[in-house]
Amino acid sequence: GQQVMQIPQYQHVQEGEDFTTYCNSSTTLSNIQWYKQRPGGHPVFLIQLVKSGEVKKQKRLTFQFGEAKKNSSLHITATQTTDVGTYFCAGGGYSTLTFGKGTMLLVSP
Amino acid sequence: DSGVTQTPKHLITATGQRVTLRCSPRSGDLSVYWYQQSLDQGLQFLIQYYNGEERAKGNILERFSAQQFPDLHSELNLSSLELGDSALYFCASSATGGAFYEQYFGPGTRLTVT
Fold first, then answer.
1. Could you read off the pLDDT of A39-92 as tens digits, one per residue?
2. Which of A22, A100, A109, B98 would suit a FRET pair with B46, their CA atoms being 20 to 30 Å apart?
3. Considering CB atoms only, which of B35, B90, B99 is closest to A95?
């Protein structure tokens, strides 16, 4: 079945440093969604990418969908302590989403 | 607040027991998903229902079952519980059952099996 891999599993940065998490699928995706889960919270939808090569920005967050629609990335510029949490990508297949295991981001002030 | 409610918030039970987790989707959402989240396994998809019918199955054990009722709320039944079933169980809902619709997650039920 479809597999979605995320790297790194964990990253610890100093506030102000940049952060990137990568998502790779074993199959071509119809779409990709990104979610954020704060410590002790539940996953919350951030954004969806649908088109090949698509790039979307939300303030300091930049999301990219690969040309082959098999990979995606989330880049955070100048991290803040409020960025702490686990970031999940979810790849769209035939009818459902497959979630990656997530990248846990820790930001030290 | 996502609009998805889950009860109970916490559940502590013994091995071999059976429990039922309940989920009410966002108003108007027809699809319900169940996920299991443990520290080393990330977010594991268990099962999806759409308008009362089972739509997709993930890594759901035979000891687990679920259903969606006519009022669209859903229940996840876990039986013959084992220590390894201790986890956070999330319910999510979406407008329809397709992959293009964002999922709204409930606050989760933390299950502890002792």
1. 999 999 999 999 999 999 999 999 999 999 999 999 999 999 999 999 999 998
2. A22
3. B99
